[in-house]
Amino acid sequence: MWNPVGTVKRILYNLGFFARTLKGVGYFIRHSKASFKILVMQILFTFVYAMGISTLLALAIGAAVNIIGVPFLTMLNQEQLIYTLLIIIITRELGPLLTAFIVIARSATAIATEIAGMVISHEVEAYISVGVDPIEHLAVPRFLGVTISLVVLNIYFSIFGLAGSYIVTQLFNTTPMDHYFNSLLQYLTIQDILLSIIKSIAFGAIISVVAVVKGFSVERASTEVPVAGLQAVSSAFAICILVNVLLSALYYIVLA
User: Fold this and answer.
1) Residue 62 within a domain
2) Residue 108 domain-assigned (yes or no)
3) What does the alpha-carbon distance between residue 62 and residue 70 come to, in Å, rounded to a whole number?
4) Considering the domain boundaries, does residue 4 fall inside one?
5) CB proximity list for 248: less than 8 A, separation 6 or greater
6) Which of 4-18, 74-88, 102-116, 179-193 has the highest mean pLDDT?
7) What confidence score (pLDDT) does residue 2 get?
8) CA 202 and chain centroid, separation
9) Which residue segment(s) compose the domain that 48 sits in?
10) Which of 31, 52, 62, 195 has its CB 3.0 to 4.6 Å from that of 164, i.e. a possible disulfide?
């Protein structure tokens, strides 16, 4: 049964944890050289190791948009709208969301289970006993690593998605490279780029904070570790979809 009071408490707790993590970013940048390796490893796992699946997915979506969209728009004598369609689908909407899904499937589970394992094995208590803030040492580098990785991965996804569309145009209807990319740049606006980056930052913050919170929420049983991973994935998916809808709606309302 849904408990509205409990839901409000969880939301407030997550917001408080997010604020505490943001507060720790400045200290981490100035003093936490020992945690810098965690940041580097997080970027390596979240961005570098995800480049392969992101490339494949981006190329496939770019090609699919072209294959489906061009014949339909040709029937309407609106071939030029394919560039607007590519920007909307790849750069503005699907790019940030799909890269977030990739990161959730890979990193949210890993972070939540890793932190949960540290809680169960009393490593977090050991940090506290020697005066090390677990949020600054464990949460902040993962927060920064996931957010930075998601922004860069989104840009990478957009580039390869648009490149995949260009490859398809060469197979069915040869288009000069300069004409194709000049047309894209003509329809690409600064608002599209900003919305895409804002979504990436928001999704990165959501994924990392949710995963760390779920990891810290375990108590004593080792059976709670996989549950924390599953809860992190489901919660991050739901929140990212909701935030994506809200940001897109706000974008269209402001432009309208």
Assistant:
1) yes
2) yes
3) 12
4) no
5) 92, 93, 195
6) 102-116
7) 54
8) 8
9) 17-255
10) 62
Query: Which H or E element spans position 85?
Result: helix 81-86
- Give me the count of residues in the chain: 256
108, 146, 149, 235, 253 from 100: Cα distances, Å: 10, 10, 10, 13, 24
Kindly state the tokens that stand for 165.
Answer: 């569309």
Residue corresponding to tokens 């928001």: 202
Tell me the mean pLDDT in the region 39-43: 89
Token look-up 């499937």 returns: 105
What average pLDDT score do residues 169-174 get? 73
Tens-place pLDDT, residues 186-231: 888 899 899 999 999 999 999 999 999 999 988 877 888 889 999 9
Q: How far apart are CA 254 and CA 161, in angstroms?
A: 27
Contacting residues for 78 by C-beta, under 8 A, at least 6 apart: none
What is the number of structural domains in the chain? 1
